[in-house]
Amino acid sequence: MAKTSTKERATPATHEEKLAELKAHMAELQKQENAQSQLISILHKAQSLYGYLPNHVMDEIAQTMGIPTAHIWGVATFYHYFKLTPPGRYEIALCLGTACYVKGAAQILQAVKDELKIDVGGVTEDGVFSLAPARCLGACGLAPVAMIGEKIHGELTPKKVVQILKDYRKQAEKDK
Amino acid sequence: MDNTKKLTITINDKEYKVDPGQTIMQAADKCGYHIPRLCYHPKLSIEGACRVCIVEVEGMRNFIASCCYPVADGMKIRTNTRELRQARRDIVELLVDNHPEDCHTCERDGNCELQRLVYSMGIRHRHFTGERKHYEKDLSGASVIRDPDKCILCGRCVRMCSEIQGVHCLTQAHRGFNTVVMPAYNMPFAESVCSGCGQCINVCPTASFVEKNYTQELFEKLNDKSLIKVAQFAPSVRAAIGEAFGLAPGRNMEGQLIAAMRRLGFDYVFDTQFAADLTIMEEGSEFLERLQGNGPLPLITSCSSAWMKYVEQFYPDMLDHISTAKSPMSMASAMIKTYWAEKMKIDPKKILSVATMCCTAKKYEATRPELDVHGMRATDLVVTTREMAWMIKSAGIDFVNIKEEKPDSPLGLSSGAGAIFGVTGGVMEAAVRTAYELYTGETLIDIELADIRGFKGVKEAKVVIDGKELRLAVAHGLGNAHKVMEMVRKDRNRFHFVEVMGCPGGCIGGGGQPYATANSIPLDEEALRLRAQALYDLDRGKTIRRSHDNPDIQRLYREYLGRPLSEKSHELLHTHYKAKLPRGIVSPELKIV
Q1: Residue B473: how many CA atoms within 13 Å on its side-chain side?
Q2: Which of B22, B485, B563, B576 has minimal CB crowding within 10 Å?
Q3: Was domain B96-211 assigned CATH 3.30.70.20?
């Protein structure tokens, strides 16, 4: 999932373009009966465009679909899949699957949390990193693993992961 | 299924014949078994969330929630077995485990449905000590305070706000243990679509929603010798406040209330009903003006504060239909600080103008800057019927037996038309009584408009004035208001005059009225009917039943205002509206009752 959203964000699009695409999606759905029940599909679309669900986009959906904003908020907060804050520039998907866990993923997670001073689901203040747990990345041979952005990092140790994060941060500063 | 055939069921081994098409709970109610309940309310959709109403049905593997299970022929139901009692008790104990232990300092101590339930379940110890939620209170709203710590997630407020009121301000956000009832984006109430109607307070079983309380501030100020304390009270307050003192609904406590307010320290007690008469003079004249082509029709009433906020957020494109006349409360306050102050040679800055209202939204209305008069806030404090009842009790006044007193002059005398302002259809009825005579110069004989009385959601009626047929509509509860607004939007010529009251039943069902007691439910229709009857009886008992016949109203125009819609009237008695954000969204799927 993290991979998809990073990819989508990579395609440059202005807010107007994203909104136009979202509106086209809603217009298509409105041709159907019970279009209001398509809310989750619309939220998926919005998240794939924006990387998360900004309030102003949920307002837009509310106005267009005639769905009360509070109802949309209820649905968006119910499902963990929907993100309500912008993800960091590098999304960290830390595997907590069985193999990684046995190989010490808990300690890796703690090291990441300590280094970035955020909790699972959080974004660093500078917006560089966001942290999410992952179930299995299909790279158990490299356990414990984490995906940062679109790159897999394997055979992690607490020390190693901290160094990797520092490198990413340097890169982010350079890009600025 | 043959819907006419009676079903045979047994409840606790006794056989009963019951109608099909109802739930076990409804059938049991009719057979005289009150199954404990919490999230259920007859006016709202079935949630089945609390599981307090479980019963045992023979042949079923588990206990079932009686609020959402239909009766069937041959069903053997038990409502009070040892196992059931234990299961119910566990359920309520678990609810209470995640609830503060502060009953004795809680606003709803003694009025709390959860407290009563806990007691009746026989819970005398708190056995569980699990994690307990903690959130900040939302103190931002001018009318309603939200305290998620006290919430037990029954969802009655959410359903009331969406299904009956059509405001859709509240939702249950997040999930599981982290679920919280909140407005969209967890915005503070002040920045949400909340209309301030206070119906969430009425249906909340705990103190998760309460009004912004001004009783301490008022007690302070009543002791301030430098202030001249002036009171006014709404029609519906007198029809309901007795319930807070254990009286049956529908007792008119006007005289007792005036006497009690004087004992609390008010120097003058006026009656909002007087200002209701004044509203009719202005609004009725405005209607006749518009009928002659000066301004858009239909004219839509503007007395209800919750309705005003709702219309500004949900129908900003239709604000030119709303009467510019202020509400009776704000008219009374404006007259207190101008006409009366001048007459009494009092510095209006020394006046403390306090309104006792059946309404929570009036607290917000009082803060609207456009209602200020001569740079002063018109209504300084608004307390609800509940708050006033508490103050009277707290001050040790024997309210029920106190000798009745009359309001002060010249803002106290009112017509019967002013009294019925508190019940749905009343403003329309009062307006027709006056508009008819102002327009035709003849006396209206049959002044009671039966078609617009009663609790149907949207009521329509026709009256003929001078050969012209006028089409009227009356809606109560904001959900019904939405319905009537959609009718108007579709066909602006359908009605000439529309009355809207924001609460179910009108002000008598306001968000500031006494809490339901142990043996009643919030917004019980019979209680509303009795409150309404108290106001209709008050009207019938008066010799003056038309606003324009009120001699003090005539004097006010003669001495001060000139005539309705005069320049002075416009300055002091009229206001304007503007679109407010966030823009509200009314779901087309709204359930209208």
Answers
A1: 23
A2: B576
A3: yes
What's the pLDDT at B589? 56
| The two three-digit tokens of residue B367, written as one number | 């803060």
**Predicted local distance difference test score (pLDDT) of residue B372:** 97
- CA gap A73, A75 in Å, rounded: 5
Which residues on adjacent β-strands are paired with residue B574? B325
Query: What are the angstrom distances between the C-alpha of B131 and each of B137, B181, B483?
Result: 19, 19, 44
Question: In this model, does residue A8 exceed pLDDT 80?
Answer: no
User: Rounded CA gap, B577 and B326, in Å?
Assistant: 11
Q: Determine, for residues A69 and B587 on separate chains, whether the beta-carbon distance falls below 8 Å.
A: no
Query: What integer pLDDT is reported at residue B444 of this predicted model?
Result: 84
Of B162, B583, B587, the CB nearest to A66: B587
Task: Give me the residue spans of the domains in chain B.
Answer: 7-80, 96-211, 216-368+375-395+408-513+535-573
Q: Which residue has the higher pLDDT, B129 or B6?
A: B6
Each as own residue / partner, the long-range contacts of residues A2-7 (CB below 8 Å, 24 or more positions apart, any chain) are A2/A91, A2/A93, A2/A132, A2/A134, A2/A147, A3/A147, A3/A150, A4/A48, A5/A47, A5/A48, A5/A51, A5/A87, A5/A91, A6/A91, A6/A149, A6/A150, A7/A150
Domain at B216-368+375-395+408-513+535-573, CATH from 3.40.950.10, 3.40.50.1820, 3.40.462.20, 3.50.50.60:
3.40.950.10
* Assigned token pair, B86: 């234990």
Q: What is the pLDDT of residue B458?
A: 96
Indicate if the pLDDT at residue A56 is higher than 50.
yes
**pLDDT tens for each residue of B167-211:** 999 999 999 999 999 999 999 999 999 999 999 999 999 999 999
Q: Cβ B184–A78 below 8 Å, yes or no?
A: no
Mean pLDDT of B67-94: 96
pLDDT at B586 over 80: no
Q: What are phi and psi of A131, to 5 degrees?
A: -120, 125
A67–B587: do the CB atoms touch at under 8 Å?
yes
pLDDT in tens, B221-237: 999 999 999 999 999 99
Which residues of B are the active-site residues?
Answer: 283, 286, 303, 323, 362, 365, 370, 507
Fold of A90-175: Glutaredoxin (3.40.30)
Residues of A with CB under 8 A from a CB of B: 36, 55, 58-59, 62-63, 66-74, 77-78
**Are B173 and A77 a contacting pair at CB < 8 A?**
yes
Looking at the structure, give the CATH architecture of the domain made up of residues B7-80.
Roll (3.10)
Return the pLDDT at A11.
54
Chain segment B182-191, per-residue pLDDT in tens? 999 999 999 9
Residues of A in contact with B581 (CB under 8 A): none
User: Touching check for B585 and chain A: CB below 8 Å?
Assistant: yes
